[in-house]
Amino acid sequence: MKIWLDGTLVDEENAKLSVTDHATLYGDGVFEGIRIYDRKIFQCQAHLDRLFASAEFLRLKIPYTRAELTQAMNDCIKANGLTDGYIRLVVTRGAGKLGLNPFNCPKPAVFVVADQIELFSPEFYQTGMPVIIAKTVRISPNMLNPKVKSLNYLNNTLAKIESLDAGVSEALMTNVDGNITEGTGDNIFIVKNGVIFTPPADAGILLGVTRGVTMHLARKLNLEVREENFTPQELLAADECFLTGTAAEIIAVTKVNDQPLGTGQVGPFTKQLQDAFHKFIRTDEQVPYTV
Ligand code: PMP
Fold it and tell me: Model-level pTM?
C-alpha cells in the first residue's frame, strides 16, 4: 500500500511519524474519513470544510491548500488502484518538545491512507443492527466540542468497548442532559409518526457529512426532518431508527439494549433513504457542510 506523507507517496513501511509528534503524545491533530465511490472523492468539499474548521478550532494551521489536499487524495487513490474505498486524511500537530504547548511543534505532519473499510457486518444492512446505550457519557461541547473531528477519540473508544463487551457492534451515547447524541462513529436518526428526528448540533455531536446528505435527501423526498433532542425512552418508542456515517453509510438499528425497536425490521423510511443514498453516491452533487 502507498501512503501519501508530506508531499510524497511512500510505501507503508516507510510512512513514519515522529514519537514526539503531539498526535502520538497527546492525540493532538485532526482528521477526516472519506469515501471513494467510482474513483471519486465523495463530498470532498464538505470534508475539507470540516477538516479546516476542526483545525482552526485547535489553532492548528494546515500547511496545504484544499486543492493540494484534493490532489494528494487523488494521487493516493490512483497509486493504490482503488475504485471504491475509504480515505483517512490526517493532520497532526507535528514533532515537538515534551509538554502540552502545541506551539512548540513547528511543522504539522499530513498524511493520506487510502484503503478498504468494513465497519459493520454486511448482513446487518439487510436485517438491521443491535446496539446498546453506553454508560460512558458523550463529552459536552464546552469540554472538547464533538463537532471537532480531533485525533482524541477516547470518549468514543470507551463506549465502543462497552458495546463489544455487550456483544454488539455499536453504542449510542447520551449527553450530560440525558439526551441521545450519536453513535461512537455515526450520527443517529429516529422516525416517529412519519417525522424524522436527529439531535441538533448543540446536543454535542459531530456534524456528519452523511447526516447532511441524509437530511438533504429526506427533504428532496418531501419527508419532514427535525433537528430535535430525544431521550433513550423516546428512542425505544420510535417506529424506526438508523445510523449514518461515512463508513456506516445508512444502517438500520433494530434492537437497543436487547429490546426490539419498532417492528424489529428495517423500516420503510430507512429503506427509502438507503435507496436514495445509493443513487446519490453515483452523482456529483455536493451538499454543503454547515457548522
Ligand atoms: N459521529 C462521529 C463521532 C463520527 O466519528 C462520525 C464518523 N466520522 C460520524 C458521526 C459520522 O460523520 P460522517 O458522516 O461525516 O462520516
Answer: 0.98
Q: 76 and 114 in contact (C-beta within 8 Å)?
A: yes
Residue with cell 463508513: 247
Atom 13 of ligand 1: nearest residue by CA position: 208
Buried b or exposed e, range 20-52, using 16+ CB within 10 angstroms: ebbbbbeebbbbbbbbbbeeebbbbebbbbbbb
Segments in the chain below pLDDT 70: none
The distance between the two most distant Cα atoms of the chain, rounded to a whole number of Å, is 56
Q: Hey, whose CA ends up nearest to atom 7 of ligand 1?
A: 185
In tens, the pLDDT along 249-283 reads 999 999 999 999 999 999 999 999 999 999 999 99
Q: Check pocket membership of 196 for ligand 1, CB cut-off 6 A.
A: no
Report whether 51 contacts 32 (CB < 8 A): yes
Our CA angle for 224, 229, 235, nearest 5°, is 85
